[in-house]
Structure formats: structure tokens, C-alpha cells
Amino acid sequence: MELARRAQRLELARDLHDFVAHDVTGMVVQAQAGQVVARSDPDAALAALRQVEQAGLHALGSLDRTVRMLGELTEPHTVPTPAEHLGAAAELVNRFGATGGTRTRFTLDPRLAPELPSEQAGLVHRIVLEALTNVRRHAPGARRVDVRMARVETAVGPAASVEVFNATAAEGAVAAAEVGSGNGSGLAALRERVERAGGTFAAGSAAAPAGWRVRATIPYAAGGS
Questions:
Q1: 75-118 pLDDT, tens per residue?
Q2: Orientation angle between helical segments 82-98 and 2-37, nearest 10 degrees
Q3: To 10 degrees, what angle do helices 82-98 and 118-138 make?
Q4: Which structural domain, as residue segments, surrounds residue 74?
Q5: Residues 161 and 143 in one domain
Q6: Distance CA 43, CA 221 (A)
Q7: What dihedral do alpha carbons 46, 52, 55, 57 form, nearest 10°?
Q8: Which of 30, 164, 174, 182 could crosslink 131 through cysteines, CB 3.0-4.6 Å?
Q9: Residue 193 maps to which CATH number?
């Protein structure tokens, strides 16, 4: 029992790192943008400050939720539904587009949520979060980001397909990140989690248009259904 609780605490710590890192990265981007335009366009600088405030409030909310969940590890607590996980991913995309100059497009297959288990839906959410955070860090000049989530059929049965693509302003300015052995965070850790769930994961440069693509397929159940 204690080992199970320790594993849950470690997982929550990783979640907290990823969620807060996403918001803090957005705050840094907006603060940098505000400094650039402060003298020539005070209104734009003020708008950037409002975005910093919103990202900060969201990060505080993530901290509060995580501390609350840590306190509930020994008590029954509600597991987010698949629709809630996918809705959180959609919110991430919307906030990403609202806090920077990158255009976003989000596509969700309506067939995905009803049968997708909560654990797999949570993994889809994590993939979107990590991919968007990498765009903020490594491709701040990205022209647009496309996020697609769909239900697909595979050899082992139905699966969730998630793809995040960022088109860049210039060749080579991609959201590059190593996908080697991981230490519990980042794309490497996501690949390990997807493969443990029986799925496939890939991340790398794309051409025509130039950019970076993260793509994963996650079976609804290990071994199919």
C-alpha cells in the first residue's frame, strides 16, 4: 500500500512540474514581449501583463489542486472523466493561442471520448501539454500549431490518435527535443508511458511545411478489445 501511495505521489509531482512549467514558460514569453513593446505600444505591454497574470493564476490553481490531491491519497477521490481530460487539452490549446502570436487549430473527433478509458485520456492530455510547452521553449516564432485528436482502428482494436504539429517561421526553427532515455519528464518519459500502454510514439522534424511533429497512438486497452 505504501509503495502504491509513493508511486502516486511521484506521478502527481511529475504532473505538477509539467503543468506549472507550461504556465511559467508562457509567463516568460509574455514578459519578454511586454519589454519589447513597452515604450512603443503601452497598450500591448498592458495586454501582455494581463496574460502573465492569467497564467500565474492558472499555475496557482494547479498547485492548489495538486496539494489537495496529495492530501486525498488515503481517501477516495473522483477520477476525471475522459471528457474532462480532453476538455482540459482543448483549454490548453485555447490558452496557448491567447497568450502568444501563434495561431492554433484544435480538432477533436466526437467519437473519441465516449469509450476512451480515463487513464488513456489523461495520457492524451499530457502529450498535448508537453508538446505545447516545447513549442513555447524551443519555437517561440512558430506561425501556427495544429492539434488533432481522433479515434482510429488498429490491429489491436480502437485507439486514440493524438498529433501536435507546429509550423515554423523559418527553416530549422523547430520545437526540437531529445527523445532518448528519460528521467521521468519530457518527451522521453511520454514515449515510455505510451509504449507501456501498448501504443506508439514519435517526435521529429517535418518538411513541407517545415516544423516539428509529435504523434502518438494509444490503444483503448492493452492487447485490444
A1: 555 667 899 889 989 988 988 887 767 889 999 999 998 889 98
A2: 20
A3: 10
A4: 1-78
A5: yes
A6: 51
A7: -90
A8: 164
A9: 3.30.565.10
